[in-house]
Specification:
heterotrimer, A mainly alpha, B mainly alpha, C alpha+beta, A: mainly alpha, two-stranded antiparallel sheet, 2 strands, globular, C: Rossmann fold, OB fold (Dihydrolipoamide Acetyltransferase, E2P), 25% helix, 33% strand, elongated
Chain lengths: 286, 318, 361
């Protein structure tokens, strides 16, 4: 429908306002990540929106290179937290996607596991905080505390509902004719699943995996409870950074925040098309 | 974007293919769903029983005995009666409700307004869309840290305000009880309005264009079209969007905890923060288990009720 | 009720000229069909009449009133969409009441009007049904009723039968025509189906590639196509057109059909015009008017379609192919030589260069 000129002006004005609100927090952190220590904390007229003397010192600092400005010693660098975040998120995704895809196929094609859709929604409904006591006890018992594989296991379970529901709707959408043809040709059902269906589903699988990865990568609370020192993840590490000498290590934290924020934002834009489906448990398809 | 179809959880659950050899299909189906079933059981049944067991004891990780021996510390149902009288718990619950009642409607209205602006094509739409979605992809803890920086008394929020009023502004956002709560809610709204926007836009473009034109031809103005056509058609989608945000908002922790740690005092202590503190600082796990169970039970009742309501008013494609 | 005048109407979408030029007078109370293949500009024309799109240039008048800048909600047109665009989340009653309600009519008034229109369209028993599970003919009536309740001066219908089963179309056509007689409004009906246009319309405007080709009653358009496009488009199958060179003979003016080796005579009344045009012509005749004859076009049968009441015999191949339609089965079979001849009165002549019909004097 045709829109009037005043409407167009209003639209762009409103969108630009929304863009400003959206971008200011992000840009402030980006700017902070490149600010030298002297510009971190300032009041009134000294406040700088853009670094006057942009520097990579913050990034060097979190990776353990002390610089002239920052003579604080870190008891450990960001390398291991980054590794921990990566390993736990990747293997958490592997667990969620393997179990979720298999179960989604089982339900979509053979009607097995009728209880799963609801059980998994309920799993998502409860605050993680309300189930963490037994998890902490169990993880301690299984020697999984403060390990990336312990995190990966709980991540795999926590994001299983998303993996399952996403893949279920993808399988439901997939026409069965090809599979049925292969069955007629004499393939076993398992072979049809692994050799025909899964290869056809490469793109949906990739989208679902990215979606699950973002969720795992974004966790803070679970890692806060289940890791203490060795395998803390980036957000936990970031939050713990502060020093009695300099107070808040703004720049260093911002640098870490940037490192943590970039991958999911890029992946999120890459799977934009499937975001609605993922976030609504497949109830809405775009 | 093509048409949007809305289906509800229980739809389409029956398998559509009749297996050529029923046994083979059923067996494979069972094996395929087994890992997921085990994981679900692993995280629900056993922990639930453990939680139930511990919740009637005074057990704590510091008590020097294994949890399985917690019966030695049996305190009948003291944890539950304590909970009923725990003002800190109730005020945390109340605070959680306030945050939800402010954030979810705000996110909904802002998201809907934005979605309306994006309903038809205009130059730059794609790039604006991608940028506006960014907040929801930022790691929540990082978002919390962003707003922690923004709301420093020497931070950019005060800087912007001082430019507006033309004098120095040094509001101590995060150390004032009311302002801290506002700051926390602003962060939540910033991060999750995009989700509402995304879902509602998907619903909005699914409203049949011909019916909108028909309404226009019959003399409906923009507002009338919105209330008589758009809203009724989006009912299911709106319910889904609100439900998702209510559920997620109830769990609010990451951004808030990074920004204020629940403080100042208990000014921003929501239910998750409260449980976290009791778990990690007071370490009275028997009591925590009781709180957690109480919440699980209440949520389950709400969930079952909601599912029943939704199944009754089930609406299939628009 | 109102007449519609389209004056020098054009519409471009970027570089694409959807409507190159359009001048059309639609009389008050007339049923006008806009007929043409998809992409011919018929829907664009109608959308402009409805006000859904602005013309690039030219004017649209309803009676004396210029419609430029009048928004679609205020034009007083009823519009029936291809898919009917029924509000599926409402009942039939709510659908019918929608227009008056939006304009703030009183409750009693709305009830009265809904009752009246439902009575007329035989929708009374269905008023409280939800509109998402109705059969197409009911949907069509609801769509018409929903517009008719506003008492529009003009009714626009956008291919309302294209989603309907072939078997059901005849029923729907009859119903539509009856409704039009009842309402007596000016109706503009867009379709690509000539049968619909021929059976329902008072006049047909044939369009192609954004250009109006011919306006006339169904029989005029059928009998005297204005150009080669209309000749081929109207009729099923379309008119046979054979390329030939006019030649003088002792029988008067004839046309030399080249490889077919015959020189049938041209109608006398057309002779002066053909002579004046000097050039190749297209010798046209309707397949239905062909008869088997002793002398005439003798051609091999290439294909025979027997479709019950009629038999279509395909003769020859390529440019010189001819189709003949017979009411009864004829004994022809593939490979046979058939001799067919059109009666002199049915012959139409077109200028091969311009494609326009050659008219007498």
């Amino acid at each position: 429908m045709k829109r009037s000129v005043p409407f167009e002006i209003f639209r762009y004005a409103a969108i630009l306002a929304a863009m400003a609100v959206t971008l200011v927090p992000i840009l402030w952190m980006v700017s902070m990540a490149f600010k030298p220590i002297g510009e971190w904390s300032a009041t009134g007229a000294d406040l700088t929106w853009w670094p006057r003397q942009p520097t990579l010192a913050n990034f060097q600092f979190v990776f353990g290179h002390s610089t002239n400005d920052l003579i604080v010693a870190l008891d450990h660098t960001a390398v291991k937290p980054i590794l921990s975040s990566l390993l736990s998120a990747v293997f958490g995704t592997v667990i969620a996607m393997s179990a979720g895809t298999a179960a989604a196929y089982g339900l979509s094609r053979f009607g097995s596991g009728q209880n799963l859709p609801l059980a998994l929604i309920q799993l998502r409904l409860f605050p993680p905080m309300a189930v963490m006591i037994p998890v902490m006890i169990m993880w301690a018992f299984l020697n999984l505390n403060d390990t990336w594989w312990g995190l990966a296991l709980i991540y795999g379970i926590v994001t299983l509902p998303f993996a399952f529901w996403l893949m279920k709707t993808f399988f439901d959408d997939l026409p069965r004719e090809i599979e049925e043809a292969a069955l007629v040709e004499g393939c076993s059902r398992l072979r049809v699943f692994t050799r025909i269906t899964l290869p056809m589903m490469r793109a949906p699988l990739a989208s679902a995996a990215l979606f699950v990865f973002i969720l795992n990568w974004s966790d803070y609370l679970i890692a806060l409870l289940l890791t203490t020192r060795e395998w803390v993840t980036i957000p936990v590490y970031m939050a713990s950074l502060s020093s009695s000498m300099t107070g808040q290590l703004y720049g260093a934290k911002a640098a870490l925040g940037l490192i943590a924020a970039v991958p999911p934002v890029i992946m999120g834009i890459a799977i934009q098309r499937h975001l609605v489906r993922g976030l609504t448990f497949g109830a809405l398809k775009q | 974007m093509s048409a949007v179809t809305a289906t509800i959880a229980e739809d389409k659950m029956e398998a559509r293919t009749k297996p050529a050899t029923p046994n083979e299909g059923a067996r494979l189906g069972f094996r395929l769903t087994l890992p997921a079933q085990i994981l679900v059981l692993f995280i629900s049944a056993f922990p639930l029983l453990m939680q139930l067991y511990i919740s009637v004891t005074d057990w704590s990780p510091l008590s020097g005995i294994g949890w399985w021996n917690a019966w030695e510390m049996w305190n009948s149902f003291a944890n539950y009666t304590d909970l009923a009288a725990d003002t800190r718990f109730w005020s945390a619950l109340q605070r959680t409700a306030i945050v939800m009642l402010v954030c979810v409607p705000a996110e909904f209205l802002l998201g809907l307004a934005l979605a309306t602006l994006f309903a038809d094509d205009f130059p730059g739409k794609r790039i604006f869309y991608s940028i506006l979605l960014m907040p929801m992809m930022v790691v929540p803890a990082v978002a919390g840290y962003m707003f922690f920086m923004l709301f420093q008394s020497g931070g950019p929020v005060n800087d912007i305000l001082s430019r507006i009023v033309g004098g120095p502004v040094t509001i101590a956002w995060l150390s004032d009880p009311t302002l801290a709560l506002i700051a926390v809610m602003v962060a939540d709204i910033w991060q999750w309005t995009p989700l509402m926007f995304l879902i509602l836009l998907a619903g909005l473009v699914g409203v049949p264009e011909d019916q909108m034109k028909a309404a226009t031809l019959l003399g409906a103005n923009a507002w009338q079209r919105f209330t008589t056509i758009v809203l009724p058609k989006m009912k299911t989608i709106i319910i889904i969007a609100l439900a998702i945000r209510v559920i997620e908002n109830f769990k609010i922790f990451d951004t808030l905890y990074i920004m204020t740690g629940g403080g100042p005092g208990v000014a921003t202590e929501t239910i998750s923060v409260y449980i976290y503190k009791v778990t990690t600082q007071d370490l009275i796990w028997g009591y925590v288990a009781a709180i957690a169970l109480a919440i699980l039970i209440v949520l389950s009742i709400v969930a079952v009720y909601a599912m029943k309501r939704m199944a009754k008013g089930r609406e299939v494609p628009v | 009720m109102s007449a519609i005048h389209l004056k020098n109407l054009t519409k471009s979408f970027g570089d694409f000229a959807a409507l190159k030029t359009m001048d059309l007078e639609i009389a008050d109370g007339e049923f006008m069909a806009l007929l043409g293949p998809s992409g011919c500009g018929k829907s664009t024309t109608m959308n402009m009449i409805a006000g859904m799109e602005e013309p690039t240039s030219g004017r649209i008048l309803f009676g004396e009133r210029d419609m430029a800048g009048v928004p679609m909600g205020r034009r007083g047109v009823g519009f029936v969409f291809q898919n009917y665009a029924i509000f599926t989340h409402m009942t039939v009653r709510q659908n019918l009441a929608y227009g008056p309600k939006m304009r703030g009519a009183a409750k009693a008034e709305i009830d009265r009007r809904v009752g009246a229109i439902a009575e007329m369209l035989q929708l009374s028993p269905l008023l409280d049904r939800k509109a998402d599970r109705l059969s197409v003919n009911i949907l069509q009536r609801v769509a018409i009723g929903r517009s008719a309740i506003m008492e529009p001066a003009i009714f626009l219908l956008d291919e309302p039968l294209s989603n309907v089963d072939a078997a059901f179309r005849a029923v729907m056509r009859t119903e539509l025509k009856q409704l039009q007689r009842q309402f007596r409004q000016t109706m503009v009906y867009v379709t690509h189906d000539q049968l619909e246009a021929m059976t329902m319309a008072d006049r047909i405007a044939v369009m192609d590639h954004g250009v109006l080709q011919q306006v006339g009653t169904p029989l005029e358009v059928y009998n005297n196509p204005a150009n080669v496009f209309v000749a081929r488009f109207i009729g099923a199958p379309g008119m046979n057109l054979l390329k030939g060179m006019p030649a003088e003979s002792d029988r008067g003016l004839v046309v030399d059909l080249g490889p077919l080796g015959v020189t049938p005579p041209l109608p006398d009344e057309l002779a002066p015009a053909v002579r004046a045009a000097r050039g190749d012509v297209l010798y046209g005749f309707r397949p239905e008017q062909v008869t088997l004859a002793e002398r005439g076009l003798s051609m091999p049968v290439s294909f025979v379609e027997r479709i019950g009441a009629r038999t279509i015999v395909h003769l020859g191949e390529g440019e010189g192919a001819v189709k003949a339609v017979f009411e009864n089965d004829v004994g022809s079979s593939v490979g046979q030589i058939a001799v067919v001849a059109p009666p002199a009165s049915s012959v139409r002549v077109f200028d091969a260069a311009t494609g326009l019909a050659v008219k007498a004097g």
